Amino acid sequence: MAELLLVRHAQASFGADNYDKLSDLGHRQSAQLGDWLRGTGWVPDRLITGTLARQAETLASMGFSATPEQHAGLNEYDFKDLLNARFGGDVPQMVLGDRKTHFRALRETILHWQEGGLPDASESWAEFSARVAAALRFVTQTEARRVLVVSSGGPIGQITSSVLNAPNPQMMELNLQLRNTSQSRFLFSSRGIGLTEFNAIPHLHPVAQAEMITHS
Description:
6-stranded mixed sheet
């Protein structure tokens, strides 16, 4: 069987005008992960990211030199658009700037979206699910034996939930657990795909690296 290593991007720039770029810490997290993988002898023979800058920057800082493929199905849902749809374009400042308030509101918003709400959003839940499913087919229909994918919390949560045949709300519970540069591993073949590890951060476990563990 082949192995899929699904990595959540490193820490982005929460609260900045442009969220879609890594923080300095994010670059360090990425480098730590790349060094750890090479140290264990795990070298990918296929690289894939979404089309978001924070995903591409994560892979670049991991230190793998081959040019990655891209698939837009690995991109995050547009959380700003969903919040605007929920709050009629007037998102409370606490939701935008306070982490706990933001993620509480985001969870409530995604659950409502999954139930068919937010008709003014640019992407429906069904459309999001379909593009993530297409991305999973793309990354697993391959002769490669070790596939490294850098994506985001929403698609990783959705892929994991779908592999486990879990109900829709489970996607968001998994999404909110995912730490930056965490690894989720799957084994796949023409017969199917199975989860072997979720949200692992062995490269950040030493006490000296505790301050490097982040969720956004």
